[in-house]
């Protein structure tokens, strides 16, 4: 009787051991599949830029160009005849500050996407940001000049950290993550009032000087609290002999210290001499891009 009972017991033990082996293999296999799937779903630069431009409805419709812009005017590796060339042009003019040597097929990290997205958000409006700094446990992995964008998106609740306060800046961003961030950015824009330009700036002045018989040099100038600020011409509109010059203020690098000395900022452009230059409306302030 004892011999009869041993066999079923051994059989049960063998089944249990075998089941544990199967279960362990299954979890390991599932883990590998998820890792491969994340890599498969990660975005390249061309897709990431296209999603931001389309998602935030960025455009250059209100800008008139003397010469039709091409991708090669701004980037060395974006072909003019590529399907995404127009999106890169729009992105560059709308404040994304994409590197000139960007590879459209290269994978995009979470910190890169955050920086581009915040650049686009800053171009959509001039928003007030509360002065807080959220602790990020993997901050040592964040590229210099990227943390300000991440912090602002954390304040706006467009991005979040995990339970251990990690952002994973060097991880590739997936399509789902990118879509979620863009959706939250749209909600932030809809629910947040954009401010008027910084009142600490002086009035922007416009002057015109003869460059050649056929070309006029147009200079915009203003006074800023210190040398960290910049003045940038964003576009020119031509209508009935008038060239309307659009501009914006570039915010200083938040990681640098500046001596508080009133500084004159200047920006220069050129127009045909038969046109009259007038100052257009100020565009949304551009946050320093590094």
Describe this structure in words.
By secondary structure, the chain is of the alpha+beta class. The chain folds into two domains: 45-191, no CATH class; 205-282, no CATH class. The protein contains six helices and six strands, in the order H-H-H-H-H-H-E-E-E-E-E-E. The strands form two sheets. A three-stranded antiparallel β-sheet has the order 1-2-5, with no helix packed on it. The model is unreliable at 1-34 (pLDDT under 50).
How far the N terminus sits from the C terminus, by CA atoms, comes to 82 Å
Helix content: 25-40%
Shape: globular
Average pLDDT confidence is 81
> Could you tell me the number of beta strands?
6
In total, the number of domains comes to 2
Please count the helical segments.
Answer: 6
* Backbone CA Rg: 27 Å
Which class do the helix and strand fractions yield?
alpha+beta
Beta-strand percentage? Answer: 15-25%
Major sheet strand order: 1-2-5
Helix and strand sequence: HHHHHHEEEEEE
Give a short account of the largest sheet: 3 strands, antiparallel
- The unreliable regions are 1-34
Entry summary:
With 290 residues, this protein is α+β, with helices and mostly antiparallel strands. The chain has helices at residues 2-41, 45-55, 85-93, 110-124, 147-155, 175-191; strands spanning 205-210, 215-224, 230-239, 242-250, 263-272, 276-282. The chain folds into two domains: 45-191, no CATH class; 205-282, no CATH class.
Search tags:
disordered N terminus, about 290 residues, 6 strands, 6 helices, alpha+beta, 3-stranded antiparallel β-sheet, 3-stranded mixed β-sheet, single chain, 2 domains, about 35% helix, about 20% strand
């Amino acid at each position: 009787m004892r011999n009869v009972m041993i066999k079923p017991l051994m059989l049960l033990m063998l089944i249990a051991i075998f089941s544990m082996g199967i279960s362990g293999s299954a979890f390991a296999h599932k883990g590998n599949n998820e890792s491969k799937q994340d890599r498969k779903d990660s975005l390249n630069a061309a897709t990431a830029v296209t999603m931001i431009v389309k998602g935030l409805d960025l455009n250059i419709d209100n800008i008139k160009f003397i010469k039709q812009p091409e991708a090669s005017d701004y980037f060395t590796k974006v072909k003019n005849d590529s399907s995404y060339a127009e999106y890169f042009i729009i992105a560059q003019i709308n404040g994304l500050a994409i590197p000139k040597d960007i590879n459209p097929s290269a994978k995009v990290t979470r910190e890169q996407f955050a920086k581009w997205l915040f650049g686009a958000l800053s171009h959509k409006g001039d928003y007030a940001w509360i002065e807080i700094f959220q602790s990020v446990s993997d901050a040592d992995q964040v590229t210099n000049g990227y943390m300000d964008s991440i912090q602002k998106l954390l304040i706006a609740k467009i991005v979040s950290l995990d339970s251990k306060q990690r952002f994973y800046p060097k991880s590739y961003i997936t399509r789902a993550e990118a879509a979620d961030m863009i959706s939250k950015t749209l909600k932030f824009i809809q629910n947040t009032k954009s401010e008027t330009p910084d009142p600490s700036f002086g009035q922007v002045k416009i002057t015109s000087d003869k460059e050649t018989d056929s070309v006029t040099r147009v200079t915009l100038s203003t006074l800023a609290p210190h040398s960290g600020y910049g003045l940038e011409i964003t576009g020119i509109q031509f209508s009935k002999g008038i060239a309307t010059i659009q501009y914006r203020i570039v915010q200083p690098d938040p990681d640098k210290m500046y001596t508080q000395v009133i500084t004159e900022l200047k920006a220069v452009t050129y127009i045909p001499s038969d046109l009259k230059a007038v100052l257009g409306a100020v565009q949304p302030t551009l946050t320093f891009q590094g």
